[in-house]
Write a structure and sequence with these properties.
By secondary structure, the chain is of the alpha/beta class. Strand 5, helix 6 and strand 6 form a beta-alpha-beta unit. Helix 9 runs parallel beside helix 10 and helix 10 packs parallel to helix 12. It is globular and about 65 Å long. The chain starts with 5 loop residues before the first strand and ends in a 6-residue tail after the last strand. It binds iron/sulfur cluster. The site of iron/sulfur cluster has 11 residues, from helix 7.
Length: 477
């Protein structure tokens, strides 16, 4: 009896890729592979790179990694290497030109092809490339091996109909395809039955959900439909888009108890001139108006964002407008990016590309300002009590030095002293905030166990075997 072949999936980029990697793991296990043990490194039978194409260094990183594993492949020719994701969808067969030791290349639209391509490559001793132009299977219809037993990504749409000039996603993930709400809710109920207490609804632009089947208010209705699901404690979503963000969604967030008071809404720039050049289809006034209405309806909401610094043509005055808006918006946090031209995007052709040194200097000013604001906002929470869904513990049992960490309902990261309660991942505890830092809160006080997690159902990864994740902040949205 030959031993099952072991796999290791290395994921780059956004939550969409994390969700797809869970499907790739499910497909491989359905084909008889087993997850490689933690720490196996390159000593496995299959390495799958699920790639990102959003930033300039994404290419360098992939080809760098492929170079690093060549010696392992030369030592063990039976080792198979596969490349999927957005960079595979973009570069296709050219990947074999630069790394002929790769065995299979598949795209963002045909995840299910992976096991067959690997078999064919082994049988024919020839690398296989298969890229589909349109979606073959909705990823959520594929088997899955989820990373967390109590928290899950639920895809509601794939692709995007917007045309932001800096973004390569629509050309690699196609136009928006929405899942029927009934399928989404059925998946959520099955997840809750299997032990999940928190879900994140996933789409490139969740606010346009339902457009493809003619229901403009579908996203707000979907949030409301999550309300009555017993056992579902936390509902989050990413990514919304300011141009499609409507008041019915704000009302659904405010009136549905298990929808968390958290909103990650990409801004990208505070300058109307730059927003126009980015083809973002909203302006700063609309953006700030949404924030005001969210805060009126949900005063405790934590709002975070994405900002791109150094977009072509951005003047110092434009950048000042971004700083002004950030000051006014009081974000709980922000993912900040230095603009990098992506071949194939309209912005890469724009004449006024900003020198790297100028971009770097602006980037540092923005981070300094946002860190100061995040810290001030976090300090205001000292003395308050928060419910924390524990995601990790350091395992120390003495209750004094032992630490657990997790997320508050508003998405903030909280480190707590474990105390006698010894909370475990999946548990929800109540803790009083005693200290604050720019990017997290601390509770060094006695905690109370709010709810002990009842444990996982069948379909979760074996304990302690996380897939290797390199998660960068949300892809441009
Ligand atoms: S930035 Fe987001 S909304 Fe814009 S095209 Fe890319 S994925 Fe779509």
């Amino acid at each position: 009896m030959t031993a099952a072949r072991t796999y290791d999936i290395r994921t780059y980029g956004c939550q969409m890729n994390v969700h797809d990697s869970e499907r790739l793991a499910g497909l491989l296990e359905a084909a008889g592979y087993v997850a490689a043990p933690a720490g196996a490194g390159d000593d496995v039978d299959l390495i799958v790179f699920n790639t990102c194409a959003v930033r300039e260094n994404a290419d360098n990183r992939l080809y760098g990694n492929l170079g690093h594993i060549l010696p392992a492949k030369q030592r063990r020719p039976g080792l198979q290497i596969a490349v999927g994701g957005c960079l595979a969808q973009k570069d296709r067969g050219r990947i074999l030109d630069r790394a002929p030791w790769v065995d299979a290349v598949f795209g963002t639209h045909n995840l299910a092809a992976l096991p067959v391509l690997l078999e064919r490559a082994r049988h024919n001793r020839k690398a296989q490339v298969e890229i589909a132009e349109t979606l073959q299977n909705f990823p959520s219809d594929l088997p899955t091996r989820r990373q967390s037993a109590f928290s899950a990504w639920v895809s509601i749409s794939v692709g995007c109909d917007n045309t932001c000039t800096f973004c390569i996603v629509p050309s690699l993930r196609g136009s928006e395809t929405d899942r029927r709400a009934g399928d989404v809710l059925a998946e959520i109920r099955a997840l809750v039955e299997s032990g999940v207490v928190e879900i994140t609804l996933l789409g490139q632009n969740v606010n346009s959900y339902g457009r493809s089947f003619g229901q403009r208010a579908a996203f707000g209705q979907l949030l409301r439909a999550c309300g009555p699901i017993e056992g579902l404690e936390r509902v989050r979503f990413t990514s919304p888009h300011p141009k499609d963000f409507t008041d019915d969604v704000i009302a659904a967030m405010a009136e549905t108890p298990n929808v968390c008071p958290q909103l990650h809404m990409p801004l990208q720039s505070g300058s109307d001139t730059v927003l126009r050049a980015m083809r973002r289809s909203y302006r700063r006034e609309r953006y700030l108006g949404i924030l005001d209405r969210v805060r009126n309806a949900i005063p405790a909401a934590a709002i975070t964002t994405d900002v791109i610094v150094g977009f072509p043509g951005e003047t110092e005055a434009d950048f000042q407008q971004t700083l002004d808006l950030v000051r006014e918006a009081r974000f709980a946090g922000a993912f900040t990016f230095q603009y990098s031209p992506r071949p194939g995007t309209p912005a890469a052709q724009l004449p006024e590309q900003i020198p790297k040194a100028v971009v770097q200097e602006r980037y540092e000013r923005l981070i300094a300002l946002q860190d100061e604001i995040s810290w001030t906002e976090n300090r205001a929470l000292i003395g308050t009590s928060v419910d924390v869904l524990v995601t990790a513990t350091d395992g120390r049992k003495d209750g004094i030095t032992g630490r657990s960490s997790g997320r508050a309902r508003d998405g903030r990261l909280v480190h707590v002293q474990t105390g006698a309660a010894q909370p475990q991942p999946g548990d929800t505890i109540t803790a009083a905030i005693t200290r604050a830092a720019p990017h997290h809160l601390v509770a060094d006080s006695e905690i109370t166990m709010h709810r002990r997690w009842r444990g996982a159902g069948p379909s979760v990864a074996p304990a302690g075997r996380p897939t290797l994740l390199t998660i960068s902040p949300t892809a441009p949205a």
